[in-house]
Amino acid sequence: MSQEKWCSVDELSSYLSVRRETIYRWIKTRNLPAHKIGTVYKARLAEIDFWVENSSRTMLFEEEDEEFQRVVKSSRNFDNEIEIKSSVVVDRRREFEDIFSKFSEQIKYRDNKNLLLAGDSLKILKLFPTNSISLIVTDPPYHSTQKSNIMGDTQFKDDSEYLEWMKMYIKEWKRILKPNGSIYCFCSSAMEAKLEVAFEEEFNILASIIWTKPNAPGFDGWKQKMKKEALRQWYPHSERIIFAEPAFSGNLFKSYFGNLLQGWRKKANMTMKDLAEVIGAYGKVNHGGSVANWEAGRNIPSFEQYNQIVDALKATGNFEDMPSYYDVIRAFHTSGNSEFTDIWTFPNIRPYKGKHPAEKPIALLEHIITASSYEGDIVLDCFSGSGSTAVAALKNKRLAISIELDNQWIQRSMDVFKKISDSNYESFPDNYSMKSVQQFNDDKQLQLNLDQEYQHQL
Ligand SMILES: C[S@@+](CC[C@H](N)C(=O)[O-])C[C@H]1O[C@@H](n2cnc3c(N)ncnc32)[C@H](O)[C@@H]1O
């Protein structure tokens, strides 16, 4: 069906796979964009798609109507269970070995899942193979905070010098990321807008996440010490995280996979309708079943749907080998049980002996890593500080690469990585932190430290 076509309520009901009564109710209660023409309602599919997409942002989980939740949920591929094939792990391991082989004296720690490199990450990144990393989670010096205890934070004379430096990273990040990879870059609210403009030269910005930190009573950072009456602007009680995917010529508003699919379909001499029909997805808008939506980059097929596409294309005789799901579809898994909006709440880390001044909470890093990578993927942090990103990645069955310039933090990361290297990374208990990992000797001790650490919160 053309997106411009006017449809009747009956057609809409089959398009959205809901009852006619539900369509009428949504017209009344949810502003479903139907127009009364004479005595009947008609709607344009393009407007309906937009409404479904938009509704998912604002109404998801506030809505008791089961049917509505089902349409909206499936439109955004929520609860999209991914079957992890062991071959993914094997391939990534080879890439991991390949990266490792480029370095010698920079290597400070290495096991078969974890690599720590010492030095200026801009220089080191230039040695990384192109398209070798699935996820970059990184936390550069913020510059606007001017903290003398963070290397690099005070080194730029003004914003433009800092931005020029960041642009060099942005170029390298785009080069080394896989086309279906993602990047999460921490920054301050003061620099976010300027950094986003710089990112947009190479990336599609997917979200500007606000990380807000409701801390325990008695520990609120500087906030409680502020003389409130002296404030001349709102107290900055959040940090920002830019979430982006690599952009490619012609796809500033499309996904990598959208462009790829369009090219494949044309090579197979199939219309969108043909392909949708062959894989049994025709007529289900935003169910992950509409080829038009996949090509427009508004949605992604499930693992099963992707394999159906591959089978349908191969059946035309125009294709032999096709890439695996994990190499073309950007990973994204979330659910209603975790932070699924662009405002995230994770408590900051209480000061402790050995804490990095900008240490990020493991729970937050785990949230990023599990949402935006597949098991077995390589996760890179090129301003790795305490090594927190690597620890969060290893706990979640990913491979980790860290790069750090400051000897103090290189040493700390080496100590931590050595201590945990004999253990089964995945067996770390939930609720662990860098503090507990730092003190780790064996499973028993980690558990003991955790118990002590969390006691004050009980
Ligand atoms: C904001 S902190 C990151 C803290 C980290 N996210 C954590 O949880 O511990 C930035 C880190 O980047 C490091 N750094 C600064 N310039 C660097 C460079 N050119 N190459 C590598 N690391 C650098 C600093 O020493 C600092 O540890």
Structural commentary:
There is one protein chain. Helix 3 packs across helix 4 (66-75). A 9-stranded mixed beta sheet has the order 4-5-12-11-6-7-9-8-10. It contains 18 helices and 12 strands. The radius of gyration is 24 Å and the shape is globular. It is of the alpha/beta class and 458 residues long. Strand 4 (107-110) and strand 5 form a beta hairpin. The N and C termini lie far apart (57 Å). It has 2 domains: 6-78, Multidrug-efflux Transporter Regulator, Chain: A, Domain 2, CATH 1.10.1660; 108-249 and 334-457, 3-Layer(aba) Sandwich (Rossmann fold), CATH 3.40.50. The chain has helices spanning 9-16, 20-29, 45-59, 66-75, 86-101, 121-125, 159-176, 189-199, 256-267, 272-278, 291-295, 303-314, 325-328, 362-372, 388-395, 407-421, 434-438, 443-455, and strands at 6-8, 35-37, 40-44, 107-110, 114-118, 133-138, 177-187, 203-212, 238-246, 343-345, 378-381, 399-404. The relative contact order is 0.12. Bound molecules: S-adenosylmethionine (SAM). Residues 120-122, 139, 141, 150-152, 356, 358-360, 383, 385-386, 388, 403-406, 409 line the site of S-adenosylmethionine.
- How many separate helices? 18
Mean pLDDT: 82
- Proportion of residues in helical segments: 40-55%
Main beta sheet: 9 strands, mixed
Number of domains: 2
Shape: globular
- What's the CATH architecture of the largest domain? 3-Layer(aba) Sandwich
- List ligands, each type once: S-adenosylmethionine
Which structural class should the secondary elements be placed in?
alpha/beta
Q: In CATH, what is the homologous superfamily of the largest domain? A: Vaccinia Virus protein VP39
CATH fold-level name of the largest domain: Rossmann fold
Strand order of the largest sheet: 4-5-12-11-6-7-9-8-10
Radius of gyration: 24 Å
- H/E topology pattern: EHHEEHHHEEHEHEHEEHHHHHEHEHEHHH
Strand content: 15-25%
Counting DSSP E segments of at least 2 residues, the number of strands comes to: 12
The separation of the N and C termini measures: 57 Å
The unreliable regions are 57-64, 74-85, 284-289, 454-458
CATH class categorisation of the largest domain: Alpha Beta
